[in-house]
Amino acid sequence: MPRLRNGIMMKGRAIKVGDKEIDYNPEFRLILQTKLSNPHYKPEIQAQTTLINFTVTKDGLEEQLLGDVVKVERPDLENNKAELTKQQNSYKITLKKLEDDLLQRLSAAGPNILSDVMLVINLETTKKMSDDIEIKATEAKITARKIDEARESYRPAASRASLLYFILNNLYKINMLYQFSLKAFSVVFNNAIKFAENSNNFKQRVQLLIDSITYLVFVYTSRGLFECDKLVFLLQMIIQVFFILNFFFLLL
């Protein structure tokens, strides 16, 4: 394509397509979409384009669902994590600005840097601010680590939900009619958390969440399957769930 080859003529703003010259708007953007899960393009195409993969992965979905379950079970943890993320990004931006400002002042300074009193004062101020930000960033990392440790307790529920979604996502191999959206699955997932039995025992609560998620996903999915395929779906759930359980048992 002429645009990918930077085929923009210098006379005005035009692109030569074949033998014709077409006016070109510099704000023009071309976005191509494919249904292929893992498309392959020629190296020269990949070098001239930006590939964005929106495919849902098991680990990515698990993290998303973990955030959803923690948001319901422990909203304080999720809010603190979001706030810490904002703070850490703010610290990085501030440090970058300080570095850029320092480089600009040094480049504009005269041959004798030490004789420039204002520059020395600014250097000391920048260093102090940088040290303060580094301390705050370190404290934020420690706090974030503690929050992540608390969030990890709910990972088994998110892991089970992610596993079930990909079982659903592969049902199209049995029948092309079986198409399940992530949005609909998220609704079922949130309902499962909502309707799960309460328990004062934390480990039991997590297990109740897992059971509720598994049951509601099975009921929701079975309603859309032919009778002859329900047993196949159930067998898939049993095999994969028990495989994961045995895998973790061996690790322990």
What this model shows, in words?
There is one protein chain. With 252 residues, the protein is mostly helical. Strand 2 and strand 3 form a beta hairpin. The longest helix has 35 residues. One of its GO terms (biological process) is microtubule-based movement. Keywords: ATP-binding, Cell projection, Cilium, Coiled coil, Cytoplasm, Cytoskeleton, Dynein, Membrane, Microtubule, Motor protein, Nucleotide-binding, Transmembrane, Transmembrane helix. InterPro entries: AAA_9, DHC. Its main location: cytoplasm.
N-to-C series of helices and strands: EEEHHHHHHHH
Q: Could you list the spans in which at least 5 consecutive residues all have pLDDT below 50?
A: 248-252
Mean pLDDT: 82
Structural class: mainly alpha
Q: Give the C-alpha Rg.
A: 28 Å
Q: Looking at the structure, what is the overall shape?
A: flat
Question: Which features characterize this protein?
Answer:
single chain, 252 residues, mainly alpha, 3-stranded antiparallel sheet, 8 helices, 3 strands
